[in-house]
Specification:
There is one protein chain. The chain has six helices and seven strands, in the order βαβαββααβαββα. The protein has 206 residues and is α/β, with parallel strands linked by helices. The chain has one domain: Rossmann fold, CATH 3.40.50. Strands 1, 2, 3, 4, 5, 6 and 7 form a seven-stranded mixed beta sheet that branches. Helix 1 links the parallel strand 1 and strand 2. Helix 1 crosses helix 6. The longest helix has 34 residues. It is globular. The chain starts with 5 loop residues before the first strand and ends with a helix. The relative contact order is 0.20. Bound molecules: flavin mononucleotide. The site of flavin mononucleotide has 20 residues, from helix 1, strand 3 and strand 5.
């Protein structure tokens, strides 16, 4: 990894494909930032390659559907398995972290999933990045097409109607919000990586 580029891993689970669309949008937003690269890392099978991808990343964006008010069990299995990383002297310390979730209800208690991701990041000594977009779709003149229509600060939310396939849901409005989260994480990660490189070169010169 070059000291001037930012490597973003989108670590996600999707049972039926809807959250996978959101994950793709997050990655698309990240790679739209010059100097950033993004990798989709599905968590269905926790192979050595998955852990290697996450270890190599400067930022990890966690994503899962909300099932029964919290991240899906597959994601929770990953979170518990990451205790081995935690035990290894906080191996993910100082990586940037963020999160996204999708569910069928407008609320569906999905804030709880974002809180779960942020606590996971904190336990790993990571640095959480939220969304910096005022809530959309929250005035009489507002539109469903507004960015952040579901009004979350902690991370990106999406909503998928339960009778629509992953080709049709979540809607474009939520995918744009996911892209915005990816872009923000990429920009912050670039700052973080480049700042760390500068500090290292200053201390080498001293
Ligand atoms: C076991 C299970 C539990 C669910 N629990 C919730 C929930 O708590 N809130 C909600 O709004 N939707 C809930 N849903 C709906 C899913 O979040 C929704 O269908 C989502 O689009 C699935 O994403 P995926 O295709 O990536 O798996 C649940 C679905 C399943 C299968």
């Amino acid at each position: 990894m070059s000291n001037n580029s930012a490597r973003i891993a989108v670590a996600y689970h999707s049972g039926y494909g809807h959250t996978a669309k959101q994950a793709e949008a997050v990655a698309r937003g990240a790679v739209g930032v010059s100097g950033a690269e993004a990798k989709l890392v599905p968590l269905d099978e926790l192979t050595d390659a998955v852990w290697a991808e996450l270890d190599a990343a400067d930022a990890i964006i966690f994503g899962a559907p909300t099932y029964m008010g919290s991240p899906s069990a597959v994601f929770k299995t990953f979170a518990e398995a990451s205790a081995a990383v935690w035990a290894d002297d906080l191996r993910w310390r100082d990586k940037i972290a963020a999160g996204f979730t999708n569910s069928k209800a407008m609320s569906g208690d999905k804030l709880n999933s974002l809180i779960d991701f942020s606590v996971l990041a904190a336990q790993h000594g990571m640095i959480w990045v939220g969304l910096d977009i005022y809530p959309g779709w929250s005035a009489s003149t507002a539109s469903i097409e507004d960015l952040n229509r579901l009004g979350s600060w902690l991370g990106a939310m999406a909503q998928s109607d339960s009778d629509l396939s992953a080709e049709q849901a979540p809607p474009a409005t939520d995918l744009r919000t996911a892209e915005a989260l990816g872009a923000r994480v990429a920009k912050i990660t670039l700052r973080h990586v480049r700042g760390a490189a500068e500090i290292a070169s200053e201390s080498d010169a001293a």
